[in-house]
Amino acid sequence: MCKVLTVQSPERFAKVSRSVRISGHSTSVRLEAAFWQVLEDIAKMEGLSTSKLISELSCEALGRLGGMSNLASMLRTVCLLYQEERNTQIVLRRNT
């Protein structure tokens, strides 16, 4: 196998719950620590707090997709898409 799991710290897989406020309502989101780190990186890049980023993503999903069935799943997907885009940009820079 690719041994991705064997080289990672177990803390990256730990589930972490955080409270966030979306459209004036408090909710709790439970994600693995690795996803929280990616969300923090995205928020920093956007000049937002992580909570504000999540609120804006939720509003964007509502406006663009008509809503979402699972906030945590949407956030995991955002993290994946962000990482894919970032990797593509790195490859493009190397090839120029």
DSSP summary: helix tally: 3
Tally of DSSP β-strands: 2
Overall mean pLDDT score?
89
- The percent range for strand residues is 15-25%
Distance between the termini: 33 Å
Structural class: alpha+beta
The low-confidence runs, each spanning 5 or more residues with pLDDT under 50, are none
Please tell me what the overall shape is.
Answer: globular
Spatial order of the strands forming the largest sheet: 1-2
Rg, rounded, reads 15 Å
Largest sheet: 2 strands, antiparallel
Helix content: 55-70%
User: In sequence order, what are the helices and strands, one letter per element?
Assistant: EEHHH
What does this structure look like?
The protein has 96 residues and is α+β, with helices and mostly antiparallel strands. It has a domain at 32-94. The protein is built from 3 helices and 2 strands; from the N terminus they run ββααα. It has helices at 33-46, 50-65, 71-94, and strands spanning 15-22, 25-32. A two-stranded antiparallel sheet has the order 1-2. A hairpin with a 2-residue loop joins strand 1 (15-22) and strand 2 (25-32). Helix 1 packs across helix 2 (50-65) and helix 1 (33-46) crosses helix 3. The chain is globular and about 45 Å long.
